[in-house]
Amino acid sequence: MKPSDRPRLPRGVRLHHDRVRDTPVLLGPEVALMLDPIGKAVLDEIDGLSDLAVISHRLAERYGAPVATVAEDVAEFLEGLAARRLVEVR
Amino acid sequence: MRDVPAPTAPPPLAMLAELTHRCPLSCPYCSNPLELTARQAEMSAEDWARIFREAAALGVLQLHLSGGEPASRPDLAEIVRSAREAGLYTNLITSGIGLTPRRLEELDAAGLDHVQLSVQGVTPEIADRMGGYQGGFARKMQTAVEIARIGFPLTINAVMHRHNLDDLPATLALAADLGARRIEVACVQFQGWALKNRAALQPSRAQVEAAKRTVAEARRIYAGRMAIDFVPPDYFADFPKACMNGWGSTGLNIAPDGKVLPCHAAEIIPGLVFQNARETPLAEIWNGPAFSAFRGTDWLPEPCQSCERRDIDYGGCRCQAMALIGDAKATDPIYRRSPFRGEVDRMIAAETTAAPPPFVYRKLARIAG
User: Which of A53, B182, B184, B358 would suit a FRET pair with B231, their CA atoms being 20 to 30 Å apart?
Assistant: First the structure.
């Protein structure tokens, strides 16, 4: 994934709050992915408009972490989801 | 004296709702039980809506609307709407027969999340022979075009066996052409009607090995475009499958009349009492006798109890142990350490070297009178 890529959730994939387990979850075809706070924070930033560079900057600022490390982690996380067709890139 | 409540199991994630056992197709590997539920006994859309709300409150996230053919119900869109209102991720498992463009648009408006379309073969000849329905393949392909037009995410579901495993590369290509994001390549599991047709469906070891190579290669070819799930045939495996990810751990099945099962084949196990969601709250059923019968690992006999794989496969499939050796508590007989594994190997060898017998097609029993 490149810094200029703009990720988005494709149709049929959505964030959901699981009230019973009190945890955020990514729902998609045959998938219910329980999210940790970091995964949730990354997916919350995905709006189909912001590119990876912008998303990484926002998260780095919010968590006071080096942007290069954040960018690497975000790309790895989203690439994993993209391989399962749970994230699309424009 | 007060009753001490039974320990509460972790909640289920998924629910399979068999809305009807009616189906225009009559595939000889149908996962429905041999004794099918008649239309008169089917629950109403209101019953289903209440069960969906109970399921969501219990912790279910994923709902699979199945059958039979769920489109055989004229009130399918209403059922989908109530599932979405309950907050469930709603998947439709369909042959595509009976889904006109107008009905698909109604399902879209009702909030259907995902469509899983079965394919019985890659040509009209094989597909219509497997489904026992002339013209079914052509209609299914029309439905697939409409699904893509509306934009539903699509999974292709292909049950593979002796008669179509050699077409696996073409099956994968067909799914990609139809725009599927996922394909489930499921080698037939011998329960229900498939068990009755085992000798007719049993693939050869050479077919299975070729399929594994095809899938490994296809995962590279279709990487990022189409995800491939592969269910190998457990008869050819050394270890049993962790059936249902462990009995009563992940999911529940509701039959058309409201009977709640830990898996679709569980009715073959004698002595289990299945409660009905029409009469009993789902949360109570989840903690009830049928779901507790083989839950966890405390009940496991030897050699499973002291096995290092105990918490990986939970002794395998209960219905398979029942079907093959008549003891639902035994180690799954496909396990290499089962004393019955030799018999399984001899049975596979006998079935795959003989010419395939004719199919026994799935049929609803006619109601007398």
Answer: B358
